[in-house]
Amino acid sequence: MKLEPLIEEFFASGRIAALSVDPNELHAFRIAGKRLRYSIEILDPNGGAKVLLRLKEVQTQLGDMHDAFVAEEFLRGLPKLSPAARRVSTELHARGMDLIERFQRTWRRRFGKRTEKAWITWARQADQ
C-alpha cells in the first residue's frame, strides 16, 4: 500500500468536505480520513507524527460534530419532548453547526496547497 494516493484522495475529498454543511458528507470524509490515518500508523508511525496530529484534530472535530447531530436526531425522534429536551435538541444542533464551522476554519488554515505538497513529498519518501 502506498501513502501518496491516499494523501491525494484525502486532500481532494477534504476540499469538497470543507465546502459542505451536510453532516452526513462530513462524517463520510471523517471515515475516509481514518483510512489514511491507519495506513500511516501502520506504515510510518514515527515519520508521520505531524501528519497524524493534524489528522486527529480534524477527526476529533468531525467526530464531535457527528455525535451532536446523532444525539439531536435521537431526541427529536422521541414521541414527546419536554421543553427542556427541546432546548437541548436545539443546543445540540447549534453545537454541530459550530463544529462544522470550526472544521472549515481548520481546513482553510492548516490544509492548504503547501501542506498537501509537503505531505506528498513526505509520503514519497515513506513509500520507498
Task: Spell out the key features of this protein.
5 helices, mainly alpha, 128 residues, single chain, 84% helix
Give a written overview of the molecule.
The protein has one domain. The termini are close together. 84% of the residues lie in helices and 0% in strands. The chain is elongated, with a radius of gyration of 17 Å.
Summarize the structure in short.
The protein is mainly alpha-helical and 128 residues long. The protein has helices at residues 3-17, 23-43, 49-77, 83-110, 113-127.
Tally the helices.
Answer: 5
Number of strands: 0
Global mean pLDDT:
92
Number of domains: 1
Based on CA atoms alone, the radius of gyration comes out at 17 Å
Largest sheet: none
Strand content bin: under 5%
In whole angstroms, the N-to-C terminal distance is: 11 Å
**Alpha-beta content class:** mainly alpha
Question: What's the shape?
Answer: elongated
- Assembly status: single chain
What is the H-and-E element order? HHHHH
Helix content: over 70%
Which residue ranges are poorly predicted, with pLDDT under 50 across at least 5 consecutive positions? none
Helix-strand blueprint:
Blueprint: H1 3-17, H2 23-43, H3 49-77, H4 83-110, H5 113-127
Helix pairs in contact: 1-2, 1-5, 2-3, 3-4
